[in-house]
């Protein structure tokens, strides 16, 4: 008894969601229309068949809307949810006749596409030319740079300003302190 109550509750939730989607698209908030769309989906084995049946009855919904409704029904309809049977195996009649891979293809159509071979966006010749140009630029910059300042130059520039006071390393401090103790 509890299983049928849960089934009915999940089905009512699905009907409410489909009603909301149809209302958002058409402005018609009709529970019977949502149940009709769900019934058409139940009679269809594939997404193209579902789209065709909707067109046959005069529902000219865009493809994106129909695909969204299909995903909602596959996700929310209690008969499409996995329920292990008593022996632990899934019953084919409970899943509505859809095998797991077909259900995943319909729920995630972008992931069901075959992979494409990778094509480099830049050919090796163009890349090598860019590397050669960059290396010549680096060589030109290296020739134009000034020589590095020596330690004497650094001391002369630091002696005039106290903003960059130099703290001697710890071993120098220890040596100075030892001299003061000795005296």
From TrEMBL:
Domain of life, per the record?
Answer: Eukaryota
Composition bias, Basic and acidic residues: 148-161
| Residue segments, region Disordered | 80-104, 137-183
Q: What is this protein called?
A: Uncharacterized protein
């Amino acid at each position: 008894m509890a299983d049928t109550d849960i089934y009915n509750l999940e089905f009512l939730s699905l009907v409410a969601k489909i009603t909301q989607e149809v209302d958002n698209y058409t402005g018609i908030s009709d529970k019977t229309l949502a149940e009709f769309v769900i019934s058409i989906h139940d009679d269809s084995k594939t997404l193209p068949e579902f789209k065709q049946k909707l067109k046959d009855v005069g529902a000219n919904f865009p493809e994106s809307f129909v695909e969204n409704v299909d995903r909602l029904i596959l996700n929310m309809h209690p008969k499409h949810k996995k329920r292990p049977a008593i022996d632990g195996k899934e019953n084919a009649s409970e899943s509505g006749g859809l095998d797991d891979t077909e259900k995943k293809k319909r729920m995630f159509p972008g992931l069901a596409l075959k992979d494409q071979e990778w094509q480099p966006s830049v050919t090796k010749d163009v890349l090598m030319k860019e590397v050669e140009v960059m290396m010549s630029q680096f060589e030109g910059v290296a020739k134009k740079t000034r020589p590095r300042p020596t330690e004497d130059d650094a001391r002369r520039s630091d002696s005039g300003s106290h903003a960059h006071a130099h703290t001697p390393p710890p071993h120098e401090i220890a040596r100075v302190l030892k001299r003061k103790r000795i005296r």
